[in-house]
Amino acid sequence: MARIFINYRRDDTPGVAGRLFDHLAMKYSRRELFMDVDAMQPGRDFAKQLESQVSQCHVLLAVIGPHWLDARDQAGKRRLDNDKDYVRIEIASALKRDIAVIPVLLDGTAMPSEGSLPDNLKSLVRRQALELRHTRFAADADAIVHALEAVVPRRRVPWTWVGGGIGLAAVVAIVLLWPKLTAKPTPQQPVTVAAKQAPAIPSAASLPPLAQTPAPTQQPSAPAPATPAADFGLPSGVKLGEMLSGIALPGSIMRVNNISADPAICQAACRAEPRCTAWTYTQPSAAEVAAHCSLKAVIPRQIPDACCTSGVEREPPPELREPPPVSPAVAGAQRGIELEGGTYRYFGGDDATPEACQAACRADGQCLAWDYVRPGIYSPEARCFLKNKTSRPVASACCIAGFERAETK
């Protein structure tokens, strides 16, 4: 269940809501956050889904930028005056439930006056607001986390439970494996290799680690060879529409849904979305109510994961069967690698190119690595993600990654 709901208007807060989401995701589980209307299920009533999501959250962050109050539709009418405006629906529903609603004012935006708001939003002005400034993003975002923890404390697993679980697992392993460990080999029956082996599944550990590359003031002596292009079509041995139990397809998320505990619902959501090629269902953990359904526009490399079930529903189009090209000017970049986690800033649009990703990372002292995500994966536009923490490399046709600095302890 998403305990924290981020309410925002796309054309009012470009990139800021996503940056705030990434910051909160480093403190909370991503499953506890709901931000985008793209995460809703197709074919269902738009307003009812929004109300359902807000009805389950514990706190709503209303991100208010300079054009939030006076944003207009194509007919020139103010959007807040439309009772079907999703920003209005979400805030009104939260206020009606009388849950915590925190206005987040961007870069000096003033709190709207009561008279400027529709009747069902007027009580918003009586909620304590917080600031989020570009020049003090980290400090302001941490203040938001501090305010959230008073309402939705972060879930922590007691170390006594962890230690107990490890001890129990060790005992079970010894009991199960002791006969094999103590058995003496029989010379007349040499060990043989099975005639038919399952197709190998590459693990994340086999992917390139975070490399130590020259600082921005140092130019590489020679460009590193580009990662060879790989075909990310239908994996060998996998059939379209087949459910793969115990397999995850990490990264490359086009959309995330919170669903009931049934992989078939995740599969149906992918089949109903023309751009969806593959999916991964993640069963709910002990602390979660809802399961997690990730839809993919490409087919990432498979990895074994007991919590997951995956499937491939369509062959990707030819242009998504291999990673985007890398210009020789982007030294050391690796094709077909996406970096999960560690994002502290991103940007998109026409400015998002591999060259711009690398330049932005090298110009920022806290940036360790970056990845470029081609258009049509996370959004219709390309995106650059900058990382200031160790990220897990994932093999996918979506991306290009670069490693600029080593993480210091």
Protein architecture, described:
Helix 3 (86-97) links the parallel strand 3 (59-64) and strand 4. Helix 2 packs parallel to helix 3 (86-97). 37% of the residues are buried. The protein is an alpha/beta fold and 409 residues long. The chain has helices at 16-25, 46-56, 86-97, 137-149, 159-182, 263-272, 354-362; strands spanning 4-7, 33-34, 59-64, 100-106, 130-132, 243-248, 253-259, 278-282, 291-296, 303-312, 334-340, 343-348, 369-373, 383-387, 392-403. A five-stranded parallel β-sheet has the order 2-1-3-4-5, with helices on both faces. Strands 6-10-8-9-7 form a five-stranded antiparallel β-sheet, covered by helices on one side. It has a five-stranded antiparallel β-sheet with strand order 11-15-13-14-12, with helices on both faces. It is 22% helix and 22% strand. The protein has three domains: 4-149, Toll/interleukin-1 receptor homology (TIR) domain (Rossmann fold), CATH 3.40.50; 212-228 and 323-403, Hepatocyte Growth Factor (3-Layer(bba) Sandwich), CATH 3.50.4; 243-319, Hepatocyte Growth Factor (3-Layer(bba) Sandwich), CATH 3.50.4. It contains seven helices and 15 strands.
Key terms:
409 residues, alpha/beta, Rossmann fold, Hepatocyte Growth Factor, 3 domains, five-stranded parallel β-sheet, five-stranded antiparallel β-sheet
- The CATH architecture of the largest domain can be named as 3-Layer(aba) Sandwich
Please work out how many helical segments DSSP would assign.
7
In terms of DSSP E residues, the strand content is: 15-25%
Mean pLDDT: 78
The helix/strand series, from N terminus to C terminus, equals EHEHEHEEHHEEHEEEEEHEEE
Count of DSSP strands: 15
> What is the CATH third-level topology name of the largest domain?
Rossmann fold
CATH class of the largest domain: Alpha Beta
CATH superfamily descriptor of the largest domain: Toll/interleukin-1 receptor homology (TIR) domain
Structural class: alpha/beta
The radius of gyration is 24 Å
Could you describe the largest sheet, including whether it forms a barrel? 5 strands, parallel
Q: If strands are numbered along the chain, what order do they take across the biggest sheet?
A: 2-1-3-4-5
**Regions with little confidence, pLDDT below 50 for 5+ residues:** 157-163, 168-175, 184-228
- Roughly how many Å apart are the termini? 34 Å
Shape: globular
